[in-house]
Amino acid sequence: MASQSVLTPQAEDFPRWYQDVVAKAEMADNGPVRGTMVIRPYGYAIWERIQSEIDARIKDAGAQNAYFPLFIPQSYLSKEAEHVEGFSPELAVVTHAGGEELAEPIVVRPTSETVIGEFMAKWIQSYRDLPLLLNQWANVVRWELRPRLFLRSSEFLWQEGHTAHATQEDASDYAMKIHLEVYNDFLNKVLAVPTFLGIKSTRERFAGATNTMTCEGMMRDGKALQMATSHELGQNFAKAFDIYYQSEEGQAALCYTTSWGSSTRLVGGLIMAHGDDNGLVLPPHVAPTQAVVIAVRDEPEVNAACEKIVASLKAAGVRVVLDRGRGSFGRRVTDWEIKGVPLRIEVGPRDLAQGIVTVVRRDNSEKVALGIDAVSDEAPILLETIQRELFQSALDRRDANTCDVASVPEAINVAQTGFARLSWDLIGPSEEAELNNQGLTIRCLQRMDGSIPASELENDLLCIIAKAY
RNA sequence: CGGGAAGUAGCGCAGCUUGGUUAGCGCGCCUGGUUUGGGACCAGGAGGCCGCGGGUUCGAAUCCCGCCUUCCCGACCA
Q: Among A270, A317, A358, A384, which has the highest number of CB atoms less than 10 A from its own CB?
């Protein structure tokens, strides 16, 4: 019996495919309030893998975790003009509590620059207290008009880093360090997503920042997704919240601050960067389950062999589960495929008769026969191969769908299905408006060699133009 | 928030135009049996405030009004 598609094919309707995957892989459901999301155990397990990888990198970069309150006095937001202007439309505000109208409305945090700024001012006395490097894992609320599970929900989970430094150079260097050593490293090595790194144009910049850096990934439909951002906030928030320190010379000086974040949107990006018509495709480094051992039949000898294999894989450090043969084989295979488990190890009587197992890769459906005793040695190697090849094929796909163009009309044409790269000199306010009218945005500005510029005023910059999520 | 479509069992849908007694179908789920190398089959069974609220009517899934939610397209965004 030929396997028939259980999901809407990507080519037929990509957004529908995405929803099908989220539902059928049991990742998330819509919550009862518009824009809210219930993350199911499988989706949350993926998020936990993402969290632990990012958290370890953040700690390596020297930042410490802390926790700040969900509720923020509305007056805090107002202290930074651009910040309040940028976030006002999407704020959820508490006006009543304890059965009474509040004297000052309370905002549900859309991000925590303001509260954290308030406490940085309190904690920072001297240059010896700098740099102050903080991070928090939290939920935030931004009222979304057009929500989509993981990609854009009104409440989402994220990490937000907030740091204070004595000099602009130090702040700038640290934001860059986070951007490269935490975000880009994580995206490349764990999610296997190649990125375009760059800065945002003034129009796309974070509200209150002096500079915003982004990691832009390409999804399988050719659209761009901002997967992490790092901001230099200059002295904007330091001024608003009086974040001063006393220098070695005894002078009072304003700090420079940064902030940087990545969210549950990464789960959506993961789905769309690698998924295919059979469902999710998880890179082994982020897969909660890296291998499933499938007992083709529910028979004592088969089950015993499976259990031995599972034990040997666990000992080899592979995250593995056992699927004992209840229900039809085809059904079980399909279910594991939808969930994107990288390796399927099929064990049946025919295999055992030959002393082998059949190992199938999720990413390319390649099958290999391995001796039973070789599985625990070979599986970790195969997983690394899959991780590497997934990144490579994502990179090939991205490069094949990225074109250098010489004019705005050409860019508009190319960006219907991929990324257009164009000289930044050719873009003025009217050109950017024209692109926006066509449903396109400038995803980032970068140098000719792909590195991150210090500002949009540098000479010879390129911009990446695409449709975006 | 503007334009469009839609909400009937866990999921996908029919029924509504032309109001009328027990609201159907497929998949899934439960029980028993036969099965199991790419979504198995047979038999039996459970499961519904027909999105919510109001109105019209002797009578509403069906007609009218309001609201909520979802999807698509725009404007906004991690």
A: A270
